[in-house]
Design goal:
This is PatA-like N-terminal domain-containing protein. Residues 77-203 form the PatA-like N-terminal domain. InterPro entries: PatA-like_N (IPR025497). It is a single chain. By secondary structure, this protein is α+β, with helices and mostly antiparallel strands. It folds into four domains: 2-58, no CATH class; 72-205, no CATH class; 228-290; 304-417, no CATH class. It contains 16 helices and 14 strands. It has helices at residues 37-40, 74-86, 123-129, 135-142, 151-157, 163-181, 207-227, 247-251, 261-266, 272-284, 306-328, 335-345, 362-374, 378-400, 403-412, 414-417, and strands at residues 2-4, 9-12, 22-26, 29-33, 44-49, 53-58, 69-73, 91-96, 101-107, 110-116, 186-192, 233-236, 259-260, 288-290. It has a six-stranded antiparallel β-sheet, with no helix packed on it. Strands 7-11-8-9-10 form a five-stranded antiparallel β-sheet, with helices on one face. A three-stranded antiparallel β-sheet has the order 13-12-14. Strand 5 and strand 6 (53-58) form a beta hairpin. The longest helix is centred in the C-terminal third of the chain and has 23 residues, at 306-328. Residues 1-18 and 61-65 have low confidence and may be disordered.
């Protein structure tokens, strides 16, 4: 991948080329220096890719009889994957995001496996970041891996995981790889109908809901990334919410002093998207806040948002009434119980989060509206979850105060359901 830094000077990033390459412009041509001799014997094509990127691709990578190649926005890519699912396609998709190559494998239209050449996407790294294993366990297990003994086998034989836990961890790894594709604005991908998965898993939620959830996560991530700046300050708020010894607990060790987003990102060896995703997770959990952020808005008058917007308004109204009812009784609404319900939505994939007072966070709302506006079926998905939050809030109020107060809240938002 060639990233343009000025009109005449370029820099090449490549996962397969370890030597430093330099590209200069001479009139209407690009001159690449620093290539290995073997590369000079091959034919390459250069194409425009996004606003400030050029893509260098070796000719003949894809067999025209069994596949094809395409640059795409991630919005178009999720539609394409949905089409593959409905066509019950068999084969593999090779994807380049500009930060490494990844593969998705389909059988009979179902996603059955994913792989990546990035260290961040390895099973152990994903398990550590998910809080499934500790850093010490990751380090010790990695030393036992051989050509004949895989990392997952080490975990099972060391009693760090059961077979069932490893099965779920493999699915977590695949979900991570898939959702990472939607953290970029554009990608390049190639189809190969002859490619077969080295192993297969089954997602009980189904391929289409999985793809929609991964796209939704990417939407939330891109919304968050667009609101922060490298110079934005990070302020620690509730460090106790990040369990010590976990990935997030280790990360807050970087925040012992006031730190900028750029300084925080450079403290980690993770790929930039993954460290910003971790920061988003810390913010969503209320562990820290990012100051001086840009606010993003979505046109709430969009015709496809009518249903979900009603439920959001109903929840906001119910929350406001519940907080006041508790304050009138000189008591505090147990927001932790409400957060536990929302956390249950996020077991397999982060869906949305609550802010400090209990409302759905701004980044989550932007993500919800984006998904509901452009993906069929997501409105119902979110409406069900927001409605469950409303009914749970009513139940909490009735249990702690009185059934009459709970009924009053439900009656006050009845118009939103009509």
């Amino acid at each position: 991948m060639i990233s343009r830094h000025s009109v005449d000077v370029f820099k090449i990033r490549s996962s397969s080329m370890t030597n430093q390459l330099k590209v200069t412009r001479e009139k209407d041509s690009l001159v690449i220096s620093g290539m290995k001799n073997a590369l000079l014997e091959e034919n390459w094509s250069v194409a425009s890719f996004k606003e400030d990127y050029l893509f260098a691709r070796k000719n003949g990578l894809t067999n025209a009889d069994t596949g094809g190649a395409c640059f795409s926005s991630v919005d178009g890519f999720v539609d394409f994957l949905s089409g593959i699912h409905f066509r019950r396609w068999d084969g593999g998709i090779l994807i380049d995001t500009g930060f490494g190559r990844k593969k998705l494998f389909f059988r009979d239209g179902e996603l059955v496996f994913a792989s990546s050449d990035l260290i961040d996407d390895r099973l152990g790294e994903v398990c550590y970041r998910r809080g499934i294993i500790t850093l010490d366990a990751l380090t010790e297990s990695a030393t036992k891996v051989t050509r004949s003994l895989k990392f997952g086998q080490v975990l099972v034989r060391s009693k760090l995981m059961t077979d069932f836990q490893l099965w779920n961890a493999l699915k977590d790894q695949i979900r991570h790889i898939v959702k990472s594709l939607f953290m970029f604005d554009h990608i390049y991908f190639e189809l190969d109908a002859k490619l077969r998965a080295p192993a297969e898993v089954v997602f009980t939620e189904g391929t289409l809901p999985l793809l929609e959830a991964c796209y939704g996560y990417g939407s939330m991530y891109r919304s968050f990334a667009d609101t922060i700046k490298p110079s934005s300050w990070i302020r620690l708020m509730n460090p106790e919410r990040a369990e010590p010894g976990t990935f997030l607990g280790d990360l807050i060790g970087f925040m012992t002093k006031r730190i900028t987003v750029e300084e925080f990102a450079t403290q980690s060896k993770l790929q930039s998207t993954n460290i910003i995703a971790a920061l988003m997770d810390l913010v969503n959990r209320g562990v820290c806040v990012v100051e001086d952020v840009k606010q993003r808005t979505f046109d709430e008058r969009h015709p496809k948002l009518f249903g979900v917007r009603k439920f959001v308004k109903a929840y906001e109204s119910a929350l406001k009434l519940a907080i006041k009812a508790f304050e009138d009784e000189k008591r505090i609404l147990p927001l932790n119980e409400l957060r536990s319900l929302v956390d249950s939505f996020n077991v397999d994939m982060p869906v949305f989060f609550l802010d400090a007072v209990g409302n759905i966070s701004a980044e989550s709302l932007y993500s919800i509206y984006s998904q509901c506006a452009y993906i069929k079926g997501r409105s119902e998905y979110f409406e069900i979850r927001i409605k469950s939050m409303i009914e749970f809030l009513v139940q909490i109020t009735g249990d702690h105060l009185s059934d009459i107060v709970g009924k009053q809240i439900r009656d006050s938002i009845r118009d939103y359901y009509s």
